[in-house]
Amino acid sequence: MVKLPIYLDNNATTRMDERVFEAMRPYFIEYYGNAASRNHAFGWKAEEAVDWGRETIARSIGADPKEIVFTSGATESDNLAIKGIAEMYASKGDHIITLTTEHKAVLDTCKALERKGHRVSYLPVTREGFVDLDMLRDAITDKTVLVTIMHANNEVGVIQDLEAIGKLCHEKGVIFHTDSTQSVGKVPFDVQRMNVDLASISAHKIYGPKGVGALYVRKKNPRVKLASQMDGGGHERGMRSGTLNVPGIVGLAKAIEICIEDMESDTKRIQSMRDKMWMDFRAELDEIYINGPDPIDKPESRLPGNLNVSFAFVEGEALMMGIKDIAVSSGSACTSASLEPSYVLKALGVGEDLAHTSIRFGIGRFNTQEECDYTVKDVVQSVRHLREMSPLYEMAKAGIDLTKIEWAAH
Amino acid sequence: MAYSEKVIEHYQHPRNVGTLDPNDPNVGTGLVGAPECGDVMRLQLRINPETGMIEDAKFKTFGCGSAIASSSLATEMIKGKSVDEAYAIKNTVIVKELNLPPVKIHCSVLAEDAIKAAIEDFKKKRASATVEAEAVA
Q1: Is A333's pLDDT higher than 90?
Q2: Is B58 an interface residue toward A (CB < 8 Å)?
Q3: Which residue of A has its CA nearest to B117?
Q4: Which helix (H) or strand (E) holds B75?
Q5: Can you tell me the distance from the alpha carbon of A178 to that of A170, in angstroms, rounded to the nearest whole number?
Q6: Which of B3, B31, B38 sits opposite A356 (nearest CB)?
């Protein structure tokens, strides 16, 4: 028997791995020293843990330990990277390039900079969510100081070709930041191979604790400098003041270490559950559409556990209500604070009518095949039930072209 | 956001889901909302031409649970009422009955609009039928 409720929202956050929890435990109650206390054993023990964490994380992404700056999470890392570069290189230029599908932590940071006089280009993406490299090349000017493009998208799972983007940026002498919150630990990520200058990392998306993250900041070829956004004791080589979150750092490092170790087997298992789920939906239901790259045709371009599907003619929140024992997300406006449906789906060219019917399934390390099978059964049943009461489904089945009807927008 | 018990009850056991023949001269159909907005309600009612009473009502709704519950409740409320009584129903009654939170008030507005649109459709049909009848006479 499947244990309810089922958590299938692993792109939002993840359950912490018990191995991570055990690694963190002593740093709350036993080794609680301040890593900046240089003159006693409590401080040394904490510093030792932080050093281990820094080395572990650096090694996992092909970086040097001195290139890791600890933060409170990816939102802070994005803010520090983007604002820090804009401020530091203001004399060189005022132009930033990003994508319309970025996370709000990037988009809203860019908007904040626009209010201060910076110029930002928001590049469109293809139907599958990819950046157009030619368009990116054309957008770069001699005033461009930063390109910030996420590695993997949180909603539709599309993975950008960072290697090509990084190469282009370095050819043009532009600093390249990537929000790699969703990808580090889940797919191969290497700052050297990908020519990444700054990378935002989060712990809670990879079975680590909430409230801790890191920013990779390149030290050579080129040396990247940041204006700090948090003033205080000059921690993290002056880039981020504030007493280090020692247990959090241990947790982040342990989480990444496990992810790297288990990546091959985790990916295989998670991807096979995701693919089966998609194929089962397709076998059971008509009028369903994948958002983002096709998981079967382009598995390398999509996060292994991410599945984003539009169940046409069934509103997302209503469907979520029908599958109340399963935790998922929807691009429907009704499930968010705003009145607009998902801006990411909109950027992919998904119509607002279909955006309202989208559900994101995020399969993770702790999900089982039984849970996925239960989910498919429950979703299929709910979609059928809701389509029976959907006037749109009835009209579409009767051959009425819904786009020809003059709807009264409200 | 938690749903009220009444919304859940209507969502799980919607009343009067279905379709009435839109070509029946005694049936009025109201189709309101838009797929782009995430809400479309179709409410139909059959009126007894002799008594002016609503004998049957059916709905189909594309929308969130509150939209489904609002239309389900609307069909329940108008059955057995006169056309004028049904036309006078205000969305606030639905808000109160379903205990809708502020962000879901538009669902009740849509239900009120659907009732009115269905009645107007019926009246339009009757008017053109009368004109035709007179033309024949």
Answers
A1: no
A2: no
A3: A408
A4: helix B65-78
A5: 14
A6: B38
> B38: closest CA among A229, A339, A46?
A339
B64 is catalytic: no
Beta carbons of B34 and A409 less than 8 Å apart: yes
Active-site residue (options: B54, B107, B111, B117): B107
Q: Name the amino acid, one letter, at A38.
A: R
A338: pLDDT strictly greater than 80? no
Nearest-CA neighbor of A120 among A101, A139, A135, A137? Answer: A139
Q: For A31-75, how does the pLDDT look when each residue is reduced to its tens digit (9 = 90+)?
A: 999 999 999 999 999 999 999 999 999 999 999 999 999 999 999
How confident is the model over A381-403, as pLDDT tens digits?
A: 999 999 999 999 999 999 999 98
Alpha-carbon Rg for chain B, nearest whole angstrom, is 15
Q: What is the pTM of this model?
A: 0.95
Is A391 near chain B, with CB under 8 Å?
yes
Residues ≥6 apart with Cβ < 8 Å to A83: A109, A112, A113, A227, A229
CB contact under 8 A, B64 and A321: yes
A179 phi, psi to nearest 5 deg: -85, 100
Q: How many CB atoms lie within 10 A of CB A192?
A: 12
Give residue for tokens 């031409």: B49
DSSP per-residue codes, A11-41? TT--PPPHHHHHHHTHHHHTS---TT-TTSH
pLDDT computed for residue A354 by the predictor: 95
Q: What one-letter code names the amino acid at A180? A: S
| Tokens matching residue B53 | 């009473």
Q: A156 to chain B, minimum CA–CA distance in Å? A: 20
Q: Which pair of structure tokens corresponds to residue A140?
A: 């770069």
pLDDT digits (tens, 9 = 90+) for A69-100: 999 999 999 999 999 999 999 999 999 999 99
- Under 8 Å CB pairs connecting chains A and B tally to 84
Q: Which of left, alpha, beta for B33 (phi over 0: left; psi -120 to 50: alpha)?
A: left
Residue in chain B nearest A316 by alpha carbon: B64
